[in-house]
């Protein structure tokens, strides 16, 4: 299965509820959700890169699934959750803010999986409270669907924890991020590249939210954000091959400026990509690992194509008003 595939969903078509009444209580609760979902995404990535690939097998609807693969899938689901909640916020006249609070790096597997478990539980609780206090049937349906997905995540996390407990990993420390010896030089540089991908992903999710009603553009931005997630994963796998562990930091998650306007978001996404190309070209000449240098050059080629797409969208937006 291609974990990076993307689908349209009925939520893409939700009608504007801008003029409908949304209680202050509902608004207060929903505003917090995008940041919490972003935190969940980061926690899943943290876990994925602390688990060796093709080592731990899960039961996924009766068939075996690799645990690392499943954790990356969950991170991508959380990106979609940010987008869905963000679109509801836009439709109800609020500007979504993708800022995390309380995101700390874990030291052990137990600490990390406990944080994921608590984050999923808290998410289900908040979404359920919102279902109870909204009268909008469409929003209720979206929230119920999201609760179901979070419940599936929770069930999978329970299963993962049991497997890691059995393997004797739960009480051990997470692998060191830096690796050791001469490879530390390459790992540090690749970690810098890894950290450039995170704000780029976040900016494109913003773009997809802000253009949520425009069916020609929003799915394209979603694809681009998932492509950046692919880049992130390729860099991560190179760090792991060299003996390190990629780390998602609070700083990289919250690095982007406050983005309020669609054109500003697209321009910021272009700047992120230009910066990546510049840095990756420099890094590729300095890296000792030929394979890792190749990865960064390959990503730069993709980024040039993405910039062209974004510039095209930017030009179209300059000619017409955004839908909302
Ligand atoms: Fe979620
Ligand atoms: Fe989740």
What structural keywords apply?
324 residues; Ferritin; two-stranded antiparallel sheet; binds fe (ii) ion; mainly alpha; 2 domains
Describe the structure.
Helix content is 67%, strand content 2%. It has 324 residues and is mostly helical. It has two domains: 153 residues, Up-down Bundle (Ferritin), CATH 1.20.1260; 149 residues, Ferritin (Up-down Bundle). It has a two-stranded antiparallel sheet with strand order 1-2. The radius of gyration is 20 Å and the shape is globular. The structure holds fe (ii) ion (2 copies). The site of one fe (ii) ion (FE2) has 5 residues, from helix 4.
Topology:
Blueprint: H1 24-48, E1 57-60, E2 63-66, H2 67-91, H3 109-133, H4 137-166, H5 183-210, H6 218-241, H7 250-253, H8 262-286, H9 290-319
Antiparallel strand pairs: 1-2
Helix pairs in contact: 1-2, 1-3, 2-4, 2-5, 3-4, 5-6, 5-8, 6-9, 8-9
Bound molecules: fe (ii) ion (FE2) (2 copies).
